[in-house]
Amino acid sequence: MVKYSATLDSTFGALADPTRRAILASLMLGEISLSNLAGPHRMSLPAVMKHLRVLEQAGLVSQKKAGRIRHCQLAAKPLKDAETWLSQYRVFWEGTFDSLERYLSRTDQSEKKEDQKWPRRNRRRKTRSS
Amino acid sequence: MVKYSATLDSTFGALADPTRRAILASLMLGEISLSNLAGPHRMSLPAVMKHLRVLEQAGLVSQKKAGRIRHCQLAAKPLKDAETWLSQYRVFWEGTFDSLERYLSRTDQSEKKEDQKWPRRNRRRKTRSS
Questions:
Q1: What is the reported pTM?
Q2: Three-state DSSP class for B5?
Q3: Rounded Cα distance, B68 and B66, in Å
Q4: Torsion angle of C-alpha atoms A112, A105, B27, B71, degrees rounded to 10
Q5: Are A22 and A70 a contacting pair, CB within 8 Å?
Q6: A82 touching B, CB under 8 A?
Q7: Largest CA distance in chain A
Q8: Closest listed residue to residue B29, CA positions, set A103, A68, A89
Q9: Is the separation of the CB atoms in B76 and B42 below 8 Å?
Q10: Is B92 on the interface with A (CB under 8 A)?
Q11: pLDDT by residue, tens only, chain B of 130 residues
């Protein structure tokens, strides 16, 4: 449990940076060399390597060397764990947003039904008899 | 897009701490007063308030005052956004872990089928004829 908590600390900590999230997005297309990874971010290689170190320590990226070229690869397991943790709260956003929406559409529908059941003429009659 | 990115920064940043995650877990049961929230965490009120400020700035918690008592409530919207961001990567863990599992179980099954098709006696015969 403590280990799981520490893993979540490092996963969420690593994801709290837009460059690191952009690096993960680049890795969605597959394995990529370090220099190709640094290119689109307009950052120096040492700066990218610093971010990669954080991602690697969080277990989100793995690196391997092929000759003189270093390749990076996405490791999805910590993302899965983070998503599992977040999904505990799904009942909240589904319970609030969805049910409010459903409640409003139901209220709207029942109002329409009421209008169909009690046309103006009948409704007036009902009011008089009661 | 920039605003969305900044929101994710603060959401993931706020979630990268075990005490803040524990505060959110406490709020799952509903609205809770500040003193009742501080109790189980064995922390001073100022320390809990510091964490609450981070959660509030990330839009994860809202506070309201009823008389002299301050109540805290969970706000799930940023959690939903974070889960949506993470779910982009679902194809990775489903694509790697699931398919590996499926591949292994399929290999296992086909090996069993092969064993059924070619009992030792027949297999020997087949080998001789080929």
A1: 0.72
A2: helix
A3: 6
A4: -50
A5: no
A6: yes
A7: 93
A8: A89
A9: no
A10: yes
A11: 567 788 999 999 999 999 999 999 999 888 898 888 887 777 788 888 999 999 999 999 999 888 888 899 999 999 999 999 999 999 888 875 444 455 556 666 655 555 554 444 444 444 444 3
d(CA A60, CA A52): 9
Contact A8 B28 (CB under 8 A): no
**Residue B30 is which amino acid?**
G
Q: What is the ipTM score, two decimals? A: 0.71
3-state secondary structure of B91: helix
List helix spans (H) across chain A. Answer: 2-15, 18-26, 34-38, 45-57, 77-87, 90-93, 99-117, 120-129
Q: Which two three-digit tokens encode residue B43?
A: 């922390």
| Token output for B106 | 């399929």
Measured between alpha carbons, how far is A43 from A50 in angstroms, rounded to an integer?
11
Strand order in the sheet with B69-74: B32-33, B69-74, B61-66
In this complex, do A79 and B89 lie within 8 Å of one another by their Cβ atoms?
yes
